[in-house]
């Protein structure tokens, strides 16, 4: 297989479709250049000034710049910028703070949590005893009273907060108060909303939580990777748990790209971008509801929307497939209380960071809502699919990926 041709094919696929996958974004060319740079040739096991290989004088400066940018952006005392991605970052935190079989609380996948927050198929639940909390089935909102009750019963050593498919603001301070009451550590996984926090649009958990993890490629619009932020007193434990605990040499090309992304996130342009993400998500949610499509929790405070398809005659998988045919790329998703399987659940997760990067605004969100509505109501109509596909083609030509 000619991989260069396949890369070109993927470039065309991205250009000719609209990604509404909440965890995806289009990294700017400066980030992609860093990822493809000579930095990938270098081995640097260890940390700046304490490496197991020679020749790291440049890499040390890059890693220190990334650490400084991460500390500054989130107001953190310490930053580890080596985690390969979100799951390894979370596993490193568990490795740092827990003993095998310790009790931990995390949000259930079916209610919006992440696999690494204790789902049964994840290594996290094999190594630790996870107690899973969820949202109030009536409101779709986190029920802090219930979380406190569970914490008092199970006395976890760590409470994980943060989500992958929860459309509402999370009160990290409340989580921290509950954790203190039961003498637990608290970890905030802000992977999805890090860009919104960086722009000051969401509560920043750094001052309340012992540890914060985030990926750098979602709303932060950087390279695939993650960082860990923590209080000074946990710094040595966290660093040791990342390397040599669960990782080998850092990916220096990615570290450089993380530094650029974290520096970019302090700019006025990035703040405007983050504000537009929220405006777009709210516009999309409102327009979907106006079309009669059920939006879990009745709206969004973030970049994502959870659609409940159960009142319609279509499953999450069927909707994902039909939408892909017209060039709208989404992912099927469980909704709170879902009785269907994760392989064909009752919902869709829609996110706007990528479309917002392309320059789309509220008017395009309303347009997209109308098009999505047509597809999910008539997924088998060739006429509808053809018509919508043409409209998506026009939007893609107007809003290019730069
Ligand atoms: N897979 C990511 C997401 O889509 O939310 C999280 O790891």
Could you walk me through the main structural features you see in this protein, from its secondary elements to its overall organization?
The protein is α/β, with parallel strands linked by helices and 402 residues long. It has 2 domains: 151 residues, Aspartate Aminotransferase, domain 1; 236 residues, Type I PLP-dependent aspartate aminotransferase-like (Major domain) (Aspartate Aminotransferase, domain 2, 3-Layer(aba) Sandwich). 44% of the residues lie in helices and 14% in strands. It has 15 helices and 15 strands. The strands form 4 sheets. It has a 7-stranded mixed beta sheet with strand order 4-10-9-8-7-5-6, sandwiched between helices. Strand 8, helix 8 and strand 9 form a beta-alpha-beta unit. Helix 11 packs parallel to helix 14. The chain is globular. The mean pLDDT is 97. The structure holds D-serine. The site of D-serine (DSN) has 4 residues, from loops. Belongs to the SHMT family. This is Serine hydroxymethyltransferase. It is an enzyme of class 2 (transferase). One of its GO terms (biological process) is methylation. Keywords: Amino-acid biosynthesis, Cytoplasm, Methyltransferase, One-carbon metabolism, Pyridoxal phosphate, Transferase.
């Amino acid at each position: 297989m000619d991989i260069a041709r396949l890369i070109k094919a993927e470039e065309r696929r991205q250009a000719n479709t609209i990604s509404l996958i909440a965890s995806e974004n289009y990294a700017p060319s400066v980030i992609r250049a860093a990822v493809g740079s000579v930095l990938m040739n270098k081995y640097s096991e260890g940390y700046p000034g304490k490496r197991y290989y020679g020749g790291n004088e440049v890499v040390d400066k890059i890693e220190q710049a990334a650490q400084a940018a991460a500390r500054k952006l989130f107001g953190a005392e310490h930053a580890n910028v080596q985690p390969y991605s979100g799951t390894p970052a979370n596993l490193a935190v568990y490795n740092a703070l827990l003993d095998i079989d310790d009790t931990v609380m995390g949000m259930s996948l079916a209610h919006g949590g992440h696999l690494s927050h204790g789902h049964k198929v994840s290594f996290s639940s094999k190594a630790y005893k996870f107690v899973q909390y969820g949202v109030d089935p009536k409101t779709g909102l986190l029920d802090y009273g219930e979380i406190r009750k569970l914490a008092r019963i199970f006395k976890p050593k760590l409470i994980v907060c943060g989500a992958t498919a929860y459309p509402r603001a999370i009160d990290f301070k409340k989580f921290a108060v509950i954790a203190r009451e039961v003498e637990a550590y608290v970890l905030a996984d802000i992977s999805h909303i890090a860009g919104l926090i960086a722009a000051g649009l969401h509560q920043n958990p750094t001052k309340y939580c012992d540890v914060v993890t985030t990926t750098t490629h979602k709303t932060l619009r950087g390279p695939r990777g993650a960082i860990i932020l923590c209080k000074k007193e946990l710094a040595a434990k966290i660093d040791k748990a990342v390397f040599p605990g669960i990782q080998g040499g850092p990916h220096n090309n990615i570290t450089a790209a993380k530094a650029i992304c974290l520096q970019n996130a302090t700019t006025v342009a990035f703040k405007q971008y983050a504000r537009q993400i929220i405006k777009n998500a709210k516009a999309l949610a409102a327009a979907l509801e106006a079309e009669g499509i059920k939006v879990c929790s009745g709206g969004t405070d973030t970049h994502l929307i959870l659609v409940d398809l159960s009142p319609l005659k279509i499953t999450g998988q069927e909707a994902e497939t039909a939408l892909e045919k017209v060039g709208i790329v989404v992912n099927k998703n469980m909704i709170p209380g879902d009785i269907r399987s994760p392989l064909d659940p009752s919902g869709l997760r829609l996110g706007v960071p990528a479309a917002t990067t392309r320059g789309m605004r509220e008017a395009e969100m309303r347009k997209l809502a109308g098009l999505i509505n047509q597809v999910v109501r008539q997924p088998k109509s060739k006429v509808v699919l053809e018509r919508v596909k043409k409209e998506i083609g026009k939007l893609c030509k107007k809003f290019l990926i730069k």
